[in-house]
Structure formats: C-alpha cells, structure tokens
Design a protein that fits this description.
Number of helices: 12
Radius of gyration: 18 Å
CATH superfamily: Aldolase class I
Strand content: 15-25%
Strand order of the largest sheet: 1-2-3-4-5-8-9-10
Number of domains: 1
CATH architecture: Alpha-Beta Barrel
Order of helices and strands: HEHEHHEHEHEHEEHEHEHEHH
Shape: globular
C-alpha cells in the first residue's frame, strides 16, 4: 500500500486507528479455547467487528512466535484472512527486527514476500545496512523505532551527542536512507509533548503511535502535536480494544471501543487536519 492509498483510506473512514493484535491465549474468552485454532478464532472475530473503524492492524509477532509452528500458522491465517476480506487494510508486522544486511534481507523476505504485510517495525541500532533491505519493496514500509514509551527509553534515546538526543539523530540520519513514501517512525503516545520536536525533524513522515488507551496516552495530545496536513498518524490501541471484555460479547465490546476512538478521531481530524 502506498502513501496516497493510506491517506485515502484514512479520509474515507475518518479514522487513523490501528488495532494491535497482541493475542495472548491466556487472556482470550474461555469459550474460544476449545476451538481448533483459538488465536485465529479470536483474531477473526476482533477483525470482523472492528474493520469498519480501523485502517490498520498490527500483530505483535512475539505473541505468535512464542507458540512455535502453531503460532506462525495462526499468524499466517490471520494476515491472509485480513488481506483477502479487507484488502484496503494496512498490515504491520510488529517484529522490531534489525540485523546485518544479509540477515535483514531474510527478515524482509519473511514478512514482505512470504506474508502479505505492508510494513515491518525495525530497531535501527545497527544502522543503514540493517534497514535498507526493507526499503527495496515497492509499496512496502519500514517503521523505525524512534522514541518509545517504555521506561527504558531513557537509558539510550535521550543521551546527547553533538547537542542532540540519540532519537533525534535516528530521525535525521535515517532520512538519508529512505523517504516519507517508504519509511515511518514509532513515537510513543506517552511522549506526546515530544511529538512537536519529532515533527520538526520529520514533518511529512507517518508516525505509528502506540500507548493510547491502556498505557495512558492522550489521543488529543498526540493529534495536537503530531498531526500534519495528510494526518500523518497511525494511533495504535491493543489491550483497550481486544481485551475490553472477556465474555461472549468480547467482539461486540471491541467494536464499541473502536467506534468510540473513531468518533474522536473524526472530530480531531476536522479540527487539526488542515
């Protein structure tokens, strides 16, 4: 999916919601645990209930890898189902990969050729050759970790060199490798006040913003500091949607929570997207 297609879908749905599929078999409703593939059954129900309000889904790959072959099969079934039934949806592999060039080529092939993902999250610590293999696929994206919302972000990301924080160096240097047509950045919602600084360095790139909802990030603050003329945001919510209810009404409640966010997003787009 290219940038214009993504922007078009955002405008059409009046939403920039990304639903995180961080599916933990221990947290899904009891009545699904007897299914042949409980993880896929849960994901399918969530997707069917929320697709009208979301423009993207983001499976967290660790939640599938931990189950070995069966987990990968659940992941494959999930992403193929989404792409076949909802081809307009933007699919993100939240894999946080990043290794020497040859290895990154294999990771890129795994997610962007063998699976129908549109984007992969990347840990850019190893530099250019760990990122560029993901940028060779037309219509596909690398999403670089820039400024994260976890406690450990302060261990490295705010360390200064030449008068700039490390995350600022990541934003500036990486733009020599790709552009706003094939590269996005992860910026945590709990760092919303820093989004203005991120926007000064990367004014036209899309930002993937986790942390709204269960992690306490403010949607309005994210929009205030991070939205640009094309929207430029994909705001992720995981637990606040997929685990909002653990009864047989789980999908219905997930739809309600997604709609609540979509309504807020539509209002904020009208206010800030100029």
């Amino acid at each position: 999916m290219n940038k214009n297609e993504l922007i078009s879908e955002i405008k059409k749905k009046q939403s920039f919601l990304c639903v995180g599929l961080d599916t933990d078999i221990n947290k899904i409703p009891e009545h699904l645990k007897s299914a042949d593939d409980p993880i896929f059954a849960f994901n399918k129900a969530i997707v069917d209930a929320t697709a009208q309000y979301a423009v993207a889904y983001k499976p967290n790959i660790a939640f599938y890898e931990c189950y070995g072959i069966s987990g990968w099969k659940s992941l494959e079934k999930t992403v193929n189902y989404i792409k076949n039934k909802f081809p307009e949806i933007f699919l993100i592999a939240d894999a946080k990969r990043g290794d020497i060039g040859n290895t990154s080529k294999m990771y890129a092939k795994a997610f962007l050729e063998n699976l129908p993902f549109d984007a992969v999250t990347i840990a850019p610590y190893m530099g250019e050759d760990s990122v560029t293999p993901f940028l060779t696929y037309e219509g596909k994206w690398a999403i670089l970790l820039a400024l994260t919302s976890n406690k450990g972000a302060f261990d490295f990301q705010f360390k200064e060199s030449d008068g700039k924080c490390l995350y600022e160096h990541v934003l500036a240097t990486s733009q020599q490798w790709g552009n706003d047509e094939n590269m996005m950045y992860v910026v945590g919602a709990t760092k919303a006040e820093m989004l203005g600084n991120v926007r000064a360095i990367a004014p036209n790139h899309f930002l993937l913003v986790p942390g709204v909802g269960a992690q306490g990030g403010s949607l309005e603050a994210v929009v205030q500091y991070g939205m640009n003329k094309d929207c430029g945001l994909l705001v992720n919510s995981s637990r606040g949607i997929i685990y909002a209810d653990t009864t047989e009404r789980f999908a219905e409640v997930a739809a309600e929570k997604s709609k609540e966010l979509q309504v807020q997003m539509a209002d904020l787009m009208a206010q800030y997207m100029k």
